[in-house]
């Protein structure tokens, strides 16, 4: 079932439209799943997904796949076009792990580039990185994200694992009033995975150790001079923490925010259940999709958010897979005036849902 919009102050709902991509038998890059895609259009306007392809040993690559449509114009499948990003750099590989994971792609017209954020699963675990392209096929790495030191936080954000990085598609007002390119991200404060016994280190002023959504900025003028400035964000600020039972453990950003009448609509995921060890797979958790509205004059400010999920794991493909009970939205695209959200299903398949306005 799809949750009724009446439960939410966000005037949207998600309506499932089916599955668009599953692992291809005999394809070694996909033996452990295809999931959590980015999306974009090639210069000729053709819609593509950039799925995470997981090979044996949890080694991830980013693929490229042309989206196919049924007679009603609904995405219904893909035509594979190969791999566009692999863990070829040393900082994307550890001795026992490797991967370029969970890409998010934002087309930023003012830069003339697609900006991809991805998780480089390297020697110190998951760290955010950026790459850019004009055609979705050839990508230039800008390198790891290097968060500027901010004294009032009393910590260095570069110490921590970080995921769910996604960019706004146009400049927004920075905290100092300067037009800026902004990115959302999700730091994780537990360093025990790296140094046993080290535990949780929270920034100054933060009492809740659950991972939440943060925002950071880079002035437009700096990016216009050198696009790699996108990897050097500053003015870090907490946007949102878990607020409702369906997202009790943690939240994280999904697709790039889209501009609607009320502000910036951000589809996000929330996680509930229990996690004994965050680095062990197959926890007793459930990932659901929700939404929040960010203030266009100050995108660090949440003006509304969904009290109930817009979509929670209910179908067989969402409830059974590499990681059971996962709905993980990562891409949103307009097709013939309709908005489609692409999402990972149980870390094994890719589904699509229609984002409908309800009021």
Radius of gyration: 19 Å
Shape: globular
- Major beta-sheet overview: 5 strands, antiparallel
Strand content: over 45%
How many beta-strand segments? 22
> What integer is the average pLDDT?
95
Class per helix and strand makeup: mainly beta
> Termini distance?
20 Å
Q: What percent of the residues sit in helical stretches (DSSP H or I)? A: under 10%
Stretches with pLDDT under 50, minimum 5 residues: 1-6
Contiguous helical run count: 2
**Strand and helix order:** EEEEEEEEEEEEEHEEEEEEHEEE
What does this structure look like?
With 359 residues, the protein is mainly beta. Helices cover 3% and strands 50% of the residues. The chain contains two helices and 22 strands. The protein has helices at 220-225, 316-319, and strands spanning 12-21, 34-41, 47-55, 59-69, 75-85, 100-108, 113-122, 125-133, 140-144, 162-167, 172-173, 179-187, 213-219, 234-240, 250-253, 258-260, 263-274, 284-295, 298-305, 327-335, 338-345, 349-357. Strand 4 (59-69) and strand 5 form a beta hairpin. The two termini are 20 Å apart. The model is unreliable at 1-6 (pLDDT under 50).
What is the structure about, briefly put?
The chain is mainly β and 359 residues long. It has helices at residues 220-225, 316-319, and strands at residues 12-21, 34-41, 47-55, 59-69, 75-85, 100-108, 113-122, 125-133, 140-144, 162-167, 172-173, 179-187, 213-219, 234-240, 250-253, 258-260, 263-274, 284-295, 298-305, 327-335, 338-345, 349-357. Mean pLDDT is 95; it is low at 1-6.
